[in-house]
Amino acid sequence: MSLDHRQLRAFLQIAELGSLGRAAKAVHLTQPALSRLTRELERSCGLALFERHPLGMRLTEAGEALVPFARSILHDMSRAEETIAELRGAGKGVVRVGAIAGVARQFLPHAVKSLRDKGTELKVYLLEGSGGELAAALADGSIDIAIAHDNLEDDEVTAVRDTGYSEDCSVVCSTSHPLAATKQCSLEEVLNAGWVLPGPGTTPRKLLEEAVRGSGKRMPSAVVETSSPSAVAAFVRRSLLLGWLPWSLYADEEEAGQICALNVPELASHRCYYIYKRRRGVLSPAASAFLAGLDIASQD
């Protein structure tokens, strides 16, 4: 079976848009030309990839099975072209990095500065997301590496190594909160206060719930729930609500004297960050250079 990149791109566009007409506009081809590419791919596979209906096209079982491989093939081809251009000196190395919010806010800027200080020329595309979103982006080739504290390993994703970067997660409040002046808060007075909590099912919420359960207590009542870490910091800063955040997400506000961490040993947590990549394929020279920069940043 021979797979052509034009056929695969046509196949993916139709799969994503569900219509030959919409896909033809997206790839700037006529409908007959796009239909010809699709049928050539089906002949090459020896199977129908779409069910054709008056209102559109739907993937068959064979088509569903081909989608992740088509994305992976096109991803590798794109990276190969970038790498060859980089080695010829025709372009700046490009690395696509996925990171959770705290890493994107504190650790990565330091790493990029270390690279630039040493004369490494790279263009970095950054995707910020949750651990699940980063794992999906790695699997479909949208990013080269991901940095997260979650365990992202599965059939498509594998860990490269520890970043050497870690931080504490703490109960935080506005510096104008009555508890801010308390040297050590009791667990009861903290849990009885008003809170802005991470959304249900998010990793920060799960970690906080684990800590609260470990202390034999019940979760505090939420005045506000949000899946946005920056929103948690904003509510903490501008109200008398407590929050629970990793240091990286309130470091700037702490430096500005707006937010402080409370000394609540039962709810304190420490987490480390790890680098992940796809199991299939190889890292480009740009991605490898970026990883070397992370080593330098973690040692500084």
What does this structure look like?
- The chain is 46% helix and 23% strand.
- With 300 residues, it is α/β, with parallel strands linked by helices.
- The chain folds into three domains: 5-74, Arc Repressor Mutant, subunit A, CATH 1.10.10; 83-165 and 272-299, D-Maltodextrin-Binding Protein, domain 2 (3-Layer(aba) Sandwich); 167-271, D-Maltodextrin-Binding Protein, domain 2 (3-Layer(aba) Sandwich).
- The strands form three sheets. Strands 3, 4, 5, 6, 9, 10 and 11 form a seven-stranded mixed beta sheet that branches. Strands 1-2 form a two-stranded antiparallel sheet. Strands 7-8 form a two-stranded parallel sheet.
- Strand 7, helix 8 and strand 8 form a beta-alpha-beta unit.
- The radius of gyration is 24 Å and the shape is elongated.
- The N and C termini lie far apart (51 Å).
- The model has no long low-confidence stretch (mean pLDDT 87).
Short structural description:
This protein has eleven helices and eleven strands.
Number of domains: 3
- The CATH superfamily of the largest domain is Periplasmic binding protein-like II
> Helical residue percent?
40-55%
Task: Please report the first level of CATH classification, the CATH class of the largest domain.
Answer: Alpha Beta
Kindly report the average pLDDT value. Answer: 87
* Number of DSSP-assigned strands: 11
What is the global morphology? elongated
Structural class: alpha/beta
Q: Quick one: biggest sheet?
A: 7 strands, mixed
Order of helices and strands: HHHEEHEHEHEEHEHEHEHEEH
- Specify the number of helices: 11
User: End-to-end span in angstroms?
Assistant: 51 Å
Cα-atom Rg, whole angstroms? 24 Å
Name given to the CATH architecture of the largest domain: 3-Layer(aba) Sandwich
Q: Beta-sheet strand percentage?
A: 15-25%
